[in-house]
């Protein structure tokens, strides 16, 4: 398979900031235009993937429509068709790497629905969509994406003679769902769509200690406790978060055997990179005893369709997401390994040559909030891992 991966191409239009989790940002300034032709360009990137060796998806089409209620067979769809379909390892698309999906000309105007269509698995050959676990490649079941495509609400403005440039941020960790003890997995794509405005900015760059580069470390920028972009560091400890909409974020580092570290007030602009720290002063959180929390989410439906998040509230703020994963589709089971020690925090200092983290020693230090969500139903439960594991939990939705 041949793929092309590019860091960034310049954006040729202005777009407002994005809300995370499958929302598109609209073009800023002026109103929509119904005259002339514009261009829609799409690419793909990924976040960390929870220990899987690889996660493959095969993209056939990206489709957009001006009606949020348009059905698959209605007139008016505009498509980026990948011929042949492109099989992509999502885990290769981290640290700012993008997979170009293509572009298409379309009438200028306002588009409110996007569908990502994946190829169906079939035959005895290499599966179109698969997860690799322990060296074994296992086909992913993707019923909705195989048929009409993953439907995303869109708010995208295409201007005449300009390029609307967007990135599909595919979160493999939250998209691969275990199916009990069957040895099989579902693919339930979790995708956010981020405008690509400029090669000059929209990046957060920094370093964690090299020792954390191979321990499942995740670095994310978050807004009100919701990750907007996440990545593992590379082998040197360097991380690049791209693209990130302009705004102010909390940067969160989660690593096995270490307390959670957060840098608040990290600014992102479209005109310059944001450098969090120097390589000579890497983020290296203190060691921590890890404890386990586990339980079951019940939704009253089969398969179980629920996402479980672990939130940590700092004294005086912010609240950040420390871990997240879908509940088992068959059993509803979930489980996390979390640090019991005091998290650390500091305010952003541009291109910091030294880091002055302060421990949040409020008691109990191992206090977290579990949040289970299924559709609009949300259930929360406080847990305390200061001195012991928290097991056998039950979260019932709604």
Description:
- With 398 residues, the protein is an all-beta fold.
- Strands 3, 4, 6, 7, 8, 9, 11 and 12 form an eight-stranded mixed sheet that branches.
- It is globular, with a radius of gyration of 21 Å.
- The chain is 2% helix and 48% strand.
- The model is unreliable at 1-34 (pLDDT under 50).
- It contains two helices and 29 strands.
- It starts with a strand and ends with a strand.
- The chain has helices at residues 143-147, 172-175; strands spanning 5-6, 37-46, 54-65, 78-89, 98-107, 109-118, 130-133, 136-141, 150-158, 163-170, 176-178, 185-187, 191-195, 204-207, 218-223, 226-231, 238-241, 247-254, 261-268, 274-275, 290-298, 307-313, 319-326, 333-339, 344-347, 358-359, 367-374, 377-384, 390-396.
In a nutshell, what does this entry contain?
The chain has 398 residues and is mostly beta strands. It has helices spanning 143-147, 172-175; strands at residues 5-6, 37-46, 54-65, 78-89, 98-107, 109-118, 130-133, 136-141, 150-158, 163-170, 176-178, 185-187, 191-195, 204-207, 218-223, 226-231, 238-241, 247-254, 261-268, 274-275, 290-298, 307-313, 319-326, 333-339, 344-347, 358-359, 367-374, 377-384, 390-396.
């Amino acid at each position: 398979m041949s793929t092309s991966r590019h860091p960034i191409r310049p954006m040729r239009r202005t777009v407002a900031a994005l809300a995370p989790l499958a929302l598109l940002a609209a073009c800023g300034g002026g109103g929509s235009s119904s005259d002339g032709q514009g261009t829609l360009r799409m690419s793909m990137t990924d976040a960390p993937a929870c220990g899987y060796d690889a996660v493959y998806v095969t993209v056939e089409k990206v489709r957009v429509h001006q009606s949020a209620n348009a059905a698959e067979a209605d007139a008016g769809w505009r498509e980026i068709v990948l011929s042949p379909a492109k099989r992509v390892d999502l885990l290769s698309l981290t640290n700012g790497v993008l997979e170009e999906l293509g572009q298409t000309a379309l009438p200028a105007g306002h588009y409110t629905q996007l569908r990502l269509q994946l190829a169906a698995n079939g035959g005895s050959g290499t599966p179109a969509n698969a997860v690799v676990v322990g060296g074994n490649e296992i086909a992913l079941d993707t019923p909705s994406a195989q048929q009409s495509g993953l439907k995303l609400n869109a708010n995208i403005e295409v201007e005449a003679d300009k390029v609307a440039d967007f990135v599909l941020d595919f979160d493999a960790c939250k998209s691969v769902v275990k199916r009990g003890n069957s040895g099989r997995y579902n693919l339930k794509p979790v995708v956010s769509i981020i405008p690509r405005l400029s090669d000059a900015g929209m990046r957060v760059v920094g370093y964690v200690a090299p020792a954390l580069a191979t321990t499942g470390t995740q670095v994310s920028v978050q807004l009100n406790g919701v990750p907007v972009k996440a990545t593992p560091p590379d082998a040197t400890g360097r991380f690049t978060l791209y693209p990130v909409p302009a705004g102010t974020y909390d940067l969160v580092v989660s690593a096995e055997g270490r307390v959670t570290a957060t840098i608040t007030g990290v600014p992102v602009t479209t005109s310059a990179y944001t450098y969090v720290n120097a390589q000579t002063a890497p983020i290296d959180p203190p060691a921590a005893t890890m404890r386990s929390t586990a339980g079951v989410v019940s939704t009253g439906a089969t398969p179980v369709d629920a996402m479980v998040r672990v939130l940590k509230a700092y004294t005086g703020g912010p609240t950040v997401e420390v871990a997240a994963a879908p509940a088992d589709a068959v059993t509803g089971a979930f489980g996390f390994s979390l640090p019991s020690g005091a998290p650390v925090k500091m305010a952003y200092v541009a291109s910091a040559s030294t880091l002055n983290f302060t421990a949040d020693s409020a008691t109990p230090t191992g206090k977290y909030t579990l949040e289970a969500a299924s559709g609009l139903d949300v259930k929360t439960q406080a847990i305390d891992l200061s001195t012991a594991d928290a097991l056998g939990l039950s979260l019932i939705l709604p």
